[in-house]
Amino acid sequence: MVSANILASLFLFLSASQVATAADNTVSGEAITERYWDCCKTDCAWPGRTEWTQPIQQCDGNNKAVTDFNAGSGCGDGKAFSCADQSPWAINDTFSYGYAGVYLVEQVRDKWCSACYEVTFTSGKVKGKKMVVQGHNSGFDLLTANKFALAIPGGNTSFAGACAKQYGVDNKVFGIEDEGVSTSKECENLPKPLQAGCKWRFDWFMNETRPNASYKRVKCPTVLTDRTKSIRNDDADIKPEDQDAEEDSASSITYYSTLGLGAFTALLKFIL
């Protein structure tokens, strides 16, 4: 006869397997968001971050592509900066594309660099709106929560003075340090390539600061990868956006949960 201890261990194993499947935060989860744009070479622009076609494209002071992936960051003594076209843009009142610095709890950068996510805002004035963003940077400044730092010119643009260096302007045009500009009108003081992304913040994003969001991994659309030139090798394994991978995952969890409970019931009947 099977002992009660063995039965209990089996049930705990099945339960733990289900939790592990549900908690895979590389696929989906809850996150916080914020704004940033510091003009520095992004973390996912360095070679070897993951398996891909190439690192995230970076630009020089004239927003021309830098072909040397080992070029130093403009936040130091280097000549590689963020490209202006890695700014957000709206498709309609409820959907936008963009880029983000990503951090997923207890994961490493090879899980998010160049990966794309559908981000659905769940709080604030943008609640219900969606974006699809590509991870072009890493957000290691907060390690206790999943985070998407949305790349928005004028959102926080003065770190290390790299934007002033890239565009040859006074650092003051980028607004208050660690905050950015205060109004849409002030976006017109930014270099021309950054103005549209800055105004997106006040229009589509309604000047939100840190709305909460849910997210799920999606196949990267070409409108994003055409700008970064970076496609992950595993992107081919991701279902298209019109096929909801999250629903399939939920169905799988339900199936295994039912299977686990069925096995538990059968063993219980055997013992009794």
Automatic annotation (TrEMBL):
It comes from Polytolypa hystricis (strain UAMH7299). This is cellulase. One of its GO terms (biological process) is cellulose catabolic process. Keywords: Carbohydrate metabolism, Cellulose degradation, Glycosidase, Hydrolase, Polysaccharide degradation, Signal. Residues 33-228 form the Glycosyl hydrolases family 45 active site domain. Pfam families: Glyco_hydro_45. GO terms for molecular function: cellulase activity. Belongs to the glycosyl hydrolase 45 (cellulase K) family. Its EC number is 3.2.1.4. It catalyses: Endohydrolysis of (1->4)-beta-D-glucosidic linkages in cellulose, lichenin and cereal beta-D-glucans. Residues 1-22 form the signal peptide. The keyword S-adenosyl-L-methionine does not apply.
